[in-house]
C-alpha cells in the first residue's frame, strides 16, 4: 500500500506502489512528456525503475513519488529525490531532484508546487547539503523551473549522454545549496 509522503495545496506525493508501472506507462509515457527523457519507455523499463525506487525508499527513506491531483485523484506526474547515478556524470552521488508532469496538466504550476515541497523535504528531513537537477539546454521549461526554485546553472557539471540524441546533449545541471535555499525562505 502506497504511503503519502508529502502534501501541497493541490497535490499528494505518495510512494510508488506495485501497480503504478502500468499507470505510469499509460498516462505519463507519451512522446511529448518523454521527449527530453530519452523517449517513450517499454513497460519493463518502467517496472525496473519502480523496483529501484521502492528499494531506495526502503533503504534511505527517499526516492521518486507519484504526483496525485487532490481534486480528481488522478495521477498527474511524478517527482522526487535520488542520487545522481549516471555513469558519465562528474558528480555521482549528489542528491538529485526531478519531475515530470502529464501533458494535459502542463502550465498549471504542478511542477513548481511539487518541487518546492520536494526541495524543502530534502533539506529539512534528509539534511542534504545541496541539490542538483539535470536536463538538456533544449528543455527550456525544465531549466526555467530550476531557476524558479533558485537553482544556479553549473556548466562544470555538464556531460554527454550517449543514449540521448544530439539535440539533447550535453546534459546540463543546476544546483542549489542549503544556504541558498534558507536565504530564500
TrEMBL record:
Residues 156-166 have a biased composition (Basic and acidic residues). Residues 156-185 are annotated as: Disordered. CDD domains: NAT_SF. GO terms for molecular function: acyltransferase activity, transferring groups other than amino-acyl groups. Residues 170-185 have a biased composition (Polar residues). Residues 11-179 form the N-acetyltransferase domain. InterPro entries: Acyl_CoA_acyltransferase (IPR016181), GNAT_dom (IPR000182), N-acetyltransferase (IPR051531). This is Probable acetyltransferase.
